Amino acid sequence: MIEVKTIDKPDERRDFPRGHLEALHLTGLDFAVGVFEPGWRWTESVGPLAGTRSCEVHHNGFVVKGRMRIRMDDGQEAEIGEGDVFVVPPGHDAWVVGDEQVVVYDFAGGMAKEYAKAKS
Question: Is the CB of residue 108 less than 8 Å from the CB of residue 58?
Fold first, then answer.
């Protein structure tokens, strides 16, 4: 069975301060488009929704535009930008660098399924 969806018509959208996520759910793939505005930081914008000290979602992604800094709980840091493919394990903070919106495509599944959902 072939499934095709367009990012222009996501299955769901989750808004959070200074950003939003759009998710597409297909058989065997949960895909997310994350949009982060200047000033966005995980600990301030998504952390209160997640109820955790740091992001506990695994990310496999591609940066479409903008720059983002990531700091692991152990202190390791990296900066990602347009054209970069990345893997970030659970246990991190992240923030937008500069004045440009960041757009990220995430293929790992956890972002599309769990990210920015309030814990019940």
Answer: yes
Pairing label, strands 102-106, 67-72 = unpaired
Q: Which residue in the block uniquely carries the two structure tokens 């200074």?
A: 18
What pTM was estimated for this model as a whole? Answer: 0.94
pLDDT at res. 120: 57
Residues 63-77 have a mean pLDDT of 98
Q: 3-class SS at 26?
A: strand
Beta-ladder partners of 94: 70
> Residue 20's CB: how many other CB atoms inside 10 A?
16
Outline where 70-120 has alpha helix (H): 110-114
What letters, b where the CB count within 10 A reaches 16 and e where it falls short, cover 57-88?
A: bbbebebeebbbbbbeeeeeeeebbeeeebeb
